[in-house]
Write a structure and sequence with these properties.
The protein is α+β, with helices and mostly antiparallel strands and 570 residues long. Among the domains are: 96 residues; 142 residues, no CATH class; 153 residues, Heat Shock Protein 90 (2-Layer Sandwich). It contains 13 helices and 13 strands.
């Protein structure tokens, strides 16, 4: 009997040890799986990736394919089953009794030991959910009494104590990772919303900025209109007077040709002279010669010396119409126009001499009147075109412009303000093209020129001047210098001139937007602007690239316009 007991005890001891070795090995394997799960799940940042990986892992861990995962869907406003994500038919509202019960207990629930829930009503709610999903295990995911979701499964595997604690450890990792993903998603949405709000705010600020600049420009426009209107009066007066003169001279010609019968006796040389006389008018300057008295004295001496017949009418005609300017070499060629006029005049009768000169004078006056009309019309056209360009708003387009044309247009716009008071000197050592917003660059130049004039008008200088100098710094960059011989910018304010709203002008004369706007324009063109100033004058340096970076679209344009308003440092 003792021997039988010995064998029985040995047999029992062997199988007990074997059982515990198997149990320990299974726990070790499960622990390794959970560690692998932890290392893998923390790599995911998206909610759906976390859910998918968790479901795949549990299918292997619980040896089942029946896994479900309810998670909070922010856009829909309720919990949805990931397995039904195509139509979201299975959902749980946030106020559902199941959510309240899970929050109350916060533990993994097994169907076989559901009795741990002592409240019969609560137990009934959980069993109803398990039966509906055909599940025998529910894993709630709760953080700080807030339900992030829940996992349910149906498995034939027996969940022992070791498996239970492993599942609880898995639950912890899922809660932390899912919580981080939700926070990350919230931050991402917040940043997206913030970016949109920043864009909207930026647009509002740009709109306000453009409005302020346009108001400043219109203020400048108002100060320039009176000067431009005065400038328009002059060419209009020329046009009116020249038109009247053309009519009178043309009537005189009609009378000479058709009513003065004796005029028809003039030789053919007259018509040859008439042809070349018109050519002479087209190439000569119409301005009245200075020192006419001295020229008349020299011409009289030449005629007397060479025994050429003459009278005052002939001498006045030759001087007034630029045939004689003090150079006696004009008489060397006996077949030129001057000698032909003198010979024909002296060969004609007294009456025909008068008709001869009157005819040439009338033709000259008609030609000069037409030239004045053409010049005055061009002046009006340039003023009106510049005014239109100045008043219209820029589209902020970077186009190809000729630099000299931009500068000339800026000078033309400021001419009515500074004419006859300050000398404008142009030194163009670079006359090629640059890619820029012609409106903005032209306005910068206008502002600098007007500002230099304001500095010069308050001092006594014998030779006040504003010089515009251009040069090529290198193959990629050009430089524009605006130079004046004014009193300079005082040292005590040189560091402040770039500040917005800084001005030393009287109220109504300047807003102080000045150099801040200019600097913004130049930097927007990827250039730079700076100045040097002392008691002998100021030089503003503007350095611009010939071409803009590739992100600027460029087109060809020959009509610069202006966007920003006037500035001044004073």
């Amino acid at each position: 009997m003792k021997k039988i007991n010995y064998y029985f005890n040995s047999f029992l001891s062997f199988y007990i040890k074997k059982f515990f070795r198997t149990e320990k090995r299974e726990v070790y394997i499960g622990k390794r799986k959970i560690d692998q799960f932890r290392r893998s799940i923390i790599k995911y940042r998206k909610v759906e990736e976390i859910i998918q990986y968790t479901c795949d892992f549990l299918k292997d861990f619980l040896s089942t394919q029946q896994i479900g995962f309810f998670y909070w869907h922010k856009e829909l406003g309720h919990f949805v089953d990931y397995t039904e994500k195509e139509n979201f038919q299975h959902k749980i509202q946030i106020f559902d009794p199941l959510i309240l019960v899970l929050t109350e207990y916060d533990l993994i629930l097994l169907k076989r030991n559901i009795e741990v829930i002592r409240n019969e009503e609560h137990r009934k709610i959980i069993l109803e959910f398990m039966n509906q999903k055909k599940a025998n295990i529910v894993i709630p995911l709760i953080l700080n009494e807030s339900v992030l979701g829940l996992i349910y499964a149906k498995t034939d595997k027996y969940i022992n104590i070791a498996d239970y604690f492993l599942l609880d450890e898995l639950r912890y990792f899922v809660i932390i990772t899912l919580s981080n993903a939700l926070i990350y998603l919230s931050l991402e949405n917040l940043l997206k919303t913030l970016e949109e709000r920043v864009k909207e705010r930026t647009k509002e600020l740009e709109k306000a900025h453009q409005t302020l600049l346009q108001q400043e420009k219109m203020a400048t426009l108002g100060t320039m209109i009176s000067g431009i209107a005065h400038e328009l009066n002059t060419p209009i007066g020329v046009i009116q007077a020249s038109s009247k003169q053309i009519t009178e001279n043309f009537e005189n010609l009609i009378e000479i040709f058709f009513l003065k019968k004796d005029f028809k006796n003039l030789p053919d040389e007259f018509f040859e002279i008439l042809y070349y006389f018109i050519f002479h008018l087209s190439i000569s300057n119409s301005n009245v010669q200075t020192k006419a008295y001295k020229l008349k004295k020299q011409l009289k001496e030449y005629f007397d010396l060479n025994k050429i017949p003459y009278d005052d009418n002939l001498m006045n005609f030759l001087i007034d119409f630029k045939f004689y300017d003090g150079n006696n070499e004009v008489f060397i060629n006996k077949n030129n126009l001057v000698n032909k006029i003198i010979n024909l005049y002296n060969q004609s009768s007294k009456e025909n001499q008068s008709h001869f000169l009157e005819t040439l004078k009338n033709i000259a006056w008609i030609y000069e009147s037409v030239s004045r009309i053409s010049h005055a019309s061009n002046v009006i056209h340039k003023l009106v075109q510049s005014l239109r360009n100045y008043s219209r708003s820029s589209k902020n387009e970077f186009l190809t412009h000729n630099l000299s044309n931009i500068i000339d247009s800026a000078i033309n716009l400021t001419q009515n303000t500074i004419k006859h008071r300050v000398k404008i000197i142009k030194e163009y050592h670079y006359e090629g093209n640059i890619v820029c917003d012609g409106n903005q660059i032209q306005q910068v130049l206008i502002n600098l020129i007007i500002n230099a004039f304001h500095a010069l008008r308050n001092i006594q200088r014998e030779d006040p001047f504003i010089k515009i100098h251009t040069r090529e710094l290198n193959q990629e960059t050009i430089e524009i210098q605006i130079i004046d011989n004014g009193p300079g910018i005082p040292k005590e304010i040189q560091q402040q001139v770039w500040d917005p709203f800084f001005t030393t002008k009287a109220p109504g004369e300047g807003t102080g937007l000045g150099l801040g706007i200019v600097k913004n324009i130049i930097e927007n063109h990827h250039g730079k602007v700076y100045f040097e100033s002392n008691k002998d004058g100021t030089i503003f340096f503007i350095q611009l690239p010939k071409n803009q970076p590739s992100n600027h679209s460029t087109k060809v344009s020959s009509h610069p316009s202006i966007k920003f308003g006037r500035y001044d440092w004073r």
